[in-house]
């Protein structure tokens, strides 16, 4: 049973073999790392990480306004 669920997940059109899986996964990873920085003193905050958070936020905000969902 677990094998069939794993295989279904693996072969899903938006599964781990596609960008549709990995792009949000990395975006969530960057966001979680950013939340972990809340506990750091300001002088130890990673500026490249903050730039990555800002850029991905801008890209996803723009993308969310441009796409047109299609229902099949």
UniProtKB/TrEMBL annotation:
Pfam families found in the cross-reference section: MPC
Lineage: Eukaryota, Viridiplantae, Streptophyta, Embryophyta, Tracheophyta
Subcellular location: Mitochondrion inner membrane
Membrane topology: Multi-pass membrane protein
Function: Mediates the uptake of pyruvate into mitochondria.
InterPro entries in alphabetical order: MPC
Recorded GO CC terms: mitochondrial inner membrane
Chief place of localization: mitochondrion
This protein's name: Mitochondrial pyruvate carrier
